[in-house]
Amino acid sequence: MTAAAKPSALLEAYDAQLRREAELLTATDVSTDGPLVRGRFDRGGFVSYRDLDGLAGADLDALIRRTIAHFRDETDVEDFEWKTRGHDAPADLADHLLAAGLRAEPEETVMIGEAAALPVPVEIPAEVSLRRLDPDAATFTDDAHRMAAMQAAAFGDGPSGDALIARLVHPDGLSEAWVAEADGEVVCAGRLEVVPGTEFAGLWGGATIAPWRGRGIYRALVAARASSAITRGVRYLQSDCTEMSRPILERSGLVRVTTTTPFVWQRDTLRP
Length: 272
Known about the structure:
The protein is built from 7 helices and 12 strands. It is α+β, with helices and mostly antiparallel strands.
């Protein structure tokens, strides 16, 4: 393993490039409060930071209260997310957020890998083919809706076909969608999202329907997206993943660098 690929170096690049402004590129009404950057995405809000400047105790509680007041009183968002990482300080940050009335969502693992190391050959069933969705193709709208429907079935929810289409036809050209198909059925899918101004792209929405799991298709889709990322000048690929996906991404060449837990405030559950 090269020095650049060590988890500590990958985490340093992640903190420097993918936090704060990089998480709010498409947000509206962006504002700051000390170490925090706050933004709005449609009817939801988001809080990002690289670190909390050593804030703890009563000072941290005050920052959390101001953040809640900002979204409650100065916006009409239905909820906002404060995205923590496992290496954030202080160590009791979660306790402060919970005490303020935010709710913890399931923890995920942050995985990162060198893009150049990921496009390895993967054997998949002969009847399975991989391709990138082409916005200029006559079948594009149908393809996007079929992909979204498969992901919704696999996850229990997910972006709509129309939301996926809007993302893929955006003039910035930073999003790609990839599918694996067998007999005309989408059996696996995932997106590649290039983060402008950084060396990173994200691997998002990866899912395989149950009958096709364990047959290398997910890893093949990771390799295909990595190849595409390299042509775009991407150095690192990053994914926030569940425990189901983590072993697959590890076999693909990504490594664990930290964890992430969203803490969510909802307007209708806010304490007085």
